[in-house]
Amino acid sequence: MNFADFKKSLSKLNELIYFDREHFLREKTSDSSKLKQYIQSVEGLLKSTNILEEKYFIMGTLGNFYRILGETQKSNQYTREVFKDCIYRTEF
Fold it and tell me: CA 73 to CA 90: how far, in whole Å?
């Protein structure tokens, strides 16, 4: 998968992600195993890209996916890494 394919594939995730009306409209997944498979392919894309803007977009998206799965440590890891890199790059 390349970055353009990845962005196009995001619209298909509406089939897996929904807003839970019983839990304050929190995003949830109807199939965590499919979302985990998707995450694995996106993590592979992250390893293969060298374009900074693409990395930030992918990492932010992965952070959101892990949050939806309830894996807050992994979610925070991706989010922090993006912020840390942005701050570092703006200081120099």
Answer: 26
CA atoms of 81 and 78, how far apart (whole Å)? 5
pTM of the predicted structure, to 2 decimals: 0.89
Per-residue pLDDT of the chain (92 residues), as tens digits, is 999 999 999 999 999 999 999 999 999 999 999 999 999 999 999 999 999 999 999 999 999 999 999 999 999 999 999 999 888 777 65
**CA 10 to centroid of chain Cα atoms:** 10
Task: Give CA 22 to chain center in angstroms.
Answer: 24
Nearest to 84 by CA among 62, 50, 59: 59
Do residues 7 and 20 make contact, with C-beta atoms less than 8 angstroms apart?
A: no
Spell 15-34 as b/e; 16+ CB within 10 A means b: ebbeeeeeeeeeebbeeeee
